[in-house]
Amino acid sequence: MFELDTRSRKPIYEQLVEKLKELIINEVLKPDEQLPSVRTLAQELTINPNTIQKAYRELESQGFIYSQKGKGSFVNTSNSSRDGEKIREVKSELERLILEALYLGISAGELIRLVENLDASKGGGDSND
Prior knowledge:
- By secondary structure, the protein is mainly α.
- It is built from five helices and two strands.
- It folds into two domains: 12-75, Arc Repressor Mutant, subunit A; 80-122.
């Protein structure tokens, strides 16, 4: 499925959350698709099942997945009200990071090129503004 960097300073559960979010956002994992069980993923990635459980709880609290008792965890379908709130949060965080980047001397042109490269690598997107 993917690899985690065990030498990274970032905790493994955070890496796992990021990787799974990326797979969900890029629609590699489809809505209502079942995620691997905690035990299966722990064996596949050779990490502690508690780490997988923590990542799944985090994804659930962020609304990316949902759990069904006795059945497992599944990719959540898009929820426009939740998405609207998340978009506001992301824009706020981006504004903070862009201001920090400008303060550190990264030019606006560099930031624009970075966004354009990311947009092109993802295949573009719809503009809701």
